[in-house]
Amino acid sequence: MPLSGAARLRQRIIRALLAGMRDLESDHTLKDSVMKTALVLNGPNLNLLGMREPAVYGSQTLADVEALCLKACAAHGFKLDFRQSNHEGILIEAIHDAGRAEAAGTLAGVVLNAGAYTHTSVALHDAIKGSGVTLIELHISNVHAREAFRHHSYISPVAKAVVAGFGIKGYALAIAGLAELTQTV
Ligand code: DQA
Question: Most buried among 37, 111, 161, 181, by the most CB within 10 A?
């Protein structure tokens, strides 16, 4: 049976809408402009994960942590920027950049495992405070159940939240927490 004029019009409108949706989906610049980045920043010795004290930190590598973070970011609509450095100044500059990116609306925040700098670095404390970045402090191990020198953190007073003791799964929990903190609706 031939379609009526109204039905043909409806069909054309539906086709045009579907074509428009396909265009939007394949528009990467649009995707890039709406998806914020989560920066996962790892400090000294975390490049040794997998071989370093496996009884404390587990047998998975930093590459495994990155894969886990990628999955968690995809689940929460973030792009992932994953980095590791053994140098305090490089971590400080990454935090400065992160503060600027967050202010510009392109970054959701930072998950920081500062490693041993957690317990020593006034400079990282000042960088976090000065940049105004939203930051979650993370530790693979439960630092409070370990040596006394790990009980004090220069990061905690300037962090939004702290995750510790969940093993590397803590990274996924911290990314979920970042999504929770930055949700606007
Ligand atoms: C750590 C705990 C720190 O005390 C230690 O220096 C690290 C790793 C953790 O992830 O449990 O390097 O941050």
Answer: 111
Which residue's CA is the nearest one to ligand 1's atom 9? 139
Amino acid in position 143: V
Model confidence, pTM: 0.84
Count Cβ atoms below 10 Å from residue 90 Cβ, excluding itself. 14
Instruction: Take atom 7 of ligand 1 and give the residue whose Cα is closest.
Output: 115
Return d(Cα 148, Cα 154) in angstroms, integer. Answer: 14
- pLDDT, one tens digit per residue, over 143-163 is 999 999 999 999 999 999 999
Q: Is 119 a catalytic residue?
A: no
Ligand 1 atom with the shortest distance to the CA of 45:
12
Q: Are 136 and 174 in contact (CB under 8 A)?
A: yes
Whether 128 and 105 have beta carbons less than 8 Å apart is answered as no
Question: What average pLDDT does the chain have?
Answer: 91
